[in-house]
Every structure is written in structure tokens, then in C-alpha cells.
Amino acid sequence: ETTLPYKWSQTLQDVTVDIKVPENKKARDFEIKIEKEHISVKLKATGEFIVNGDLHKPIKPKDSFWSKDEDVITMELHKVNKMEWWSCVCNGDPEIDTTKIQPENTNLADLDGETRGMVQKMMFDQRQKAAGLPTSEELEKQEAINKFMQ
Fold first, then answer.
1. Which of 7-11, 52-56, 85-89, 94-98 has the lowest mean pLDDT?
2. Backbone Cα Rg of the chain
3. How far is residue 58 from each of residues 25, 51, 146, measured CA to CA in Å?
4. Which of 40, 59, 71, 112 could form a disulfide with 77 if both were Cys (CB 3.0 to 4.6 A apart)?
């Protein structure tokens, strides 16, 4: 079992990477790069990489950032594709089973109008199906047929 030099978590929008670094070092002691398809953290004094890898999927470097607290450098990486889960941070690292991810509950109010409408329609259709009633599409078709028959 490979031990990674970091712990990570994700939402559909971003990936958070907490990288353990030597204690008593300042942020300026590190060379930190966040690129579209690559991240690295290097100790300037020794040239030793703590993390250096090609990302599993592309990110938006301009929207991504890092911060340092005590002996941890945290990278907030914003995904290009906000509709998929990552199975790992860097290619070649151990992968997780993304089918077991329990997505965080989203508040409908947090979604933009179009997305909220789609989600509400899906929820309505799910409830209708569960109750053995017609879905919104079937209702629309029925309405069109009724209009045509008049």
C-alpha cells in the first residue's frame, strides 16, 4: 500500500489537497506550482519534491490557490469539468472507487435558474413514476394529443 504525501477530498467543483511538509519551514521555503494539468511542491533548499505529478483531470489554475498553515500546504484546485468525480489527484496514485461517493446535499436555492429547473423537473418525474403517474414529458405529449384532437 502506497502512502501518499497528502490527504485529499473533493466536491463536484473542486479538489482539496492537504500536503504534509517539514515543520519550521516558511511558505517562501517552497516552490509551489499549480498548472492546468500538473501540481508540484518542492523544497527550495534541497530541490526535493514533496509532490510532483500530472493531475488526473485538468483544473483552472487561475481559480485555484494554495495556503500554508503550520506543517500543511493546502491546495484548492478548481475542476474544469464540474460534473465528474476524480478517482485520484495525480495519475499513478492509488485510485478510489468513485461509485461509492455520497454526494453532498445541494440546496436547490444554491443552483442557477436553469439547473434548478432541471433538478425540480427530475424530482417531479421521479415522484410521478414512483406513484405510477405520467412524467412531465408524458403529460406534455398527452396535452399535445388533446390539442390536436380538438
1. 94-98
2. 23
3. 29, 17, 49
4. 59
